[in-house]
Amino acid sequence: LLPVASQPAIRKPSAGFWPELHAAISLVAYGAFALACVAGVMYLVQERLLKRHRMNSFFQNLPPIADLSVAMVRLLLAGFILLTAGLVAGLLAGEIREHLAAVAWSAGVWFMYGGLLLVRLATGQAAPDALPQEWSREWLTYLYVTLSTAIVFTGFGAALGRSADCLLRMATFDGLTGLQNRSGLAQRLDVEVRRAHRYGQPL
What we know:
203 residues; 74% helix
């Protein structure tokens, strides 16, 4: 099991631009959905307190119910758009067959939130005329927030990827000699065993 000098070292290849972009945008999308969930819980609590006429101190600290309704729609819409962009980046990244469960889950979430937005628009709860007017007035702000968020989280994902690659190398290679340690040799042995079984060759 000693490493041969001519044997190439095991190095984990970089995930690439599209996977990192997919992970970053999807993270922001699920964050928007989580904030929408928080706003929805506050909306339901405030609605319950209003129906029971219980105007206590907790009720006074909640945001106005009309603002919560608008915030929920905006967060759902922002999360839906970001999730769509994340799914597109994931498709461009390839290797869909290796992540069928994640693709199916993301597609289910996409259809669920898309249906929810369609229902709100169809019932008039989302004020469809107000959204285009707001976008026409504040399009520069929305563009700045979207681009800056995408850039920050993409850089954050790239930094995390490089850190993971560095930790992997430190865990599998000896820092003094540059040779593989026991963990690296075990990984290489597993790769060679799988290769021998796949091609029917002796180990």
